[in-house]
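U., I forgot to send this yesterday:
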Amino acid sequence: MSERLGVVFVHGFLSSAATWSPFLRLIETDADLASVDPYTFEYPSPPVSLNPLRRIPDINDIADSLRTYLTHARGDQSRLVLVTHSQGGLVAQRMLARTLANGDGPELSRIRRIVLFACPNTGSDLALLLRRSGPWRHPQERELRPLNQAISDAHRIVVNQIIHATAVTAASCPIPIVAYAGDRDGVVTPVSARSVFPEVGVLPGDHSSIIKPDSHGHRSYVALKRHLREALSMADVPAPRPSDDRLSPTTRPPRTAADLSRELVDRLLAVPRMTEPAFREQVYELLPPVIVHQHRRDTAARVELFSLVRSFEHYRHLAPGDSLVAALETLLPDHPAVADVLDALTGAGLYDPSRHR
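Result:
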């Protein structure tokens, strides 16, 4: 396997690989990145298809094509970075989600980092009414609309099983992802571009110019270069370890309730089709009614809060418990439920009341 760093650039909607020319020229003339091999992944994204024998691929098709490209065309690269623009970020996330859904998490361990430029993580409102009511029908455009379910499902998997993953398993693989917004972007707002990713930033430019650096000192290039150098210095991801239940009693480390819950969630996510909402509904129908009722009281909030609490352990050094308590006490001062949350955080070692007396 090659020890060089392969960087795969993925373009956006109605675009092509040519959009990456400024970055490619700068990388090729940067002595600090002599160990970097840049490549472009191109896919069809025409405005219309006039040939009745051809169709425009949807994002699932493109995501599977990207996975095939990485497996075969870039199969000799032991270290990879994905750099995406706009819809390309959705393609990369869909590829991650579909790979994990197949139980192939270790396949993703070559990816050292993913950099998203102006990715519409929560959709784009630009000319939305015209896009919905006009005669133009495009399979890729439909998934660029706000509140698209397929995009939301893939994004949730990426947050839970990539961003907050702690080990390489069949259903998880920790990969740093950084999301950048353009300060003058009228196509994808900063809120949509940054979404809930923990590592985010804002760069100069609109939706197009954010990926058109004109010098090695351009802020977009400086940002990407830093991430590539970090990827070059990262240690290899350790191979998946056997589950604790395969270890002998004398070597098995003690596990907390949180460890057991995390392991159960990971194993459930590794079950084929478990990432499909319709399949999960079939599973829920066979559970005791009281559990189904409890789960459905506010499913979306529970999923989000479960992800939030899991991330607290991963980012403990940032004192997230302190931030949560401060937010709740500001929004709901003296509420008994907030006091209960404070006690739970203290018991979990995520909040120290003595620091705030």
